């Protein structure tokens, strides 16, 4: 029996790299074009889960496996934005400085029969208290651009992490333990 086609519903090169770490190479990468706005009253976990499911459904293909994920950084009940400009990144870093936050990574896999399965990884991250010079240097690196809450734990910002409980890969954007479990449950062959 041949393995079904695997589609990654993501434009993130980080998710592609993370899948490669567990020996998974998608047959196609099809970014989902959905509205990622936060709905009124939507809490961080529900937001991540809804977006992962909507991304998977947006690119669903009969007989194929479709893998989608969404990562939300939350300070309390507040969902931090994806940093598209330096001012947003600065606000996020100043907010996270010296405090604990949660990173929720939701994963949805639609199997070859059309059944959707879901998993969630929640990690707790604590940043050291950041100096103005550290924030300025990080902003100058440009690494923050397009990242949820304005930082990339797999890069220079890892030096700011005083404590991490949970999934490092989940904070990067795709929790590998949960993702592999979904793939195994769908019959994806691991060698």
UniProtKB/TrEMBL annotation:
Manganese as UniProt keyword: no
UniProt keyword list: Cytoplasm, Hydrolase, Nucleotide metabolism
Tagged with keyword Transcription regulation: no
Catalytic machinery residues: 70
Cofactor: a divalent metal cation
Biological function: Nucleoside triphosphate pyrophosphatase that hydrolyzes dTTP and UTP. May have a dual role in cell division arrest and in preventing the incorporation of modified nucleotides into cellular nucleic acids.
Protein name: dTTP/UTP pyrophosphatase
Taxonomic placement: Bacteria, Pseudomonadati, Pseudomonadota, Alphaproteobacteria, Sphingomonadales
């Amino acid at each position: 029996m041949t393995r079904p086609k695997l589609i990654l519903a993501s434009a993130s090169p980080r998710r592609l790299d993370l899948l490669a770490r567990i020996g998974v190479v998608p047959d196609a990468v099809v970014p989902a074009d959905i509205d990622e706005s936060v709905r009124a009253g939507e809490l961080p976990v529900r937001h991540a889960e809804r977006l992962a499911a909507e991304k998977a459904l947006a690119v669903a293909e009969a007989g194929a496996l479709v893998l989608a994920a969404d990562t939300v950084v939350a300070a309390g009940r507040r969902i931090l934005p994806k940093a598209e400009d330096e001012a947003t990144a600065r606000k996020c870093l100043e907010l996270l400085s010296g405090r604990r936050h949660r990173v929720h990574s939701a994963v949805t896999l639609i199997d070859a029969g059309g059944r959707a399965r879901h998993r969630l990884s929640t990690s707790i991250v604590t940043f050291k208290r950041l100096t103005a010079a550290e924030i300025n240097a990080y902003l100058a690196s440009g690494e923050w651009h397009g990242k949820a809450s304005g930082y990339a734990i797999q890069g220079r910002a890892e030096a700011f992490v005083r404590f991490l409980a949970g999934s490092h890969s989940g904070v990067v954007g795709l929790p590998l333990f949960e993702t592999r479990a979904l793939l195994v449950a769908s019959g994806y062959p691991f060698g």
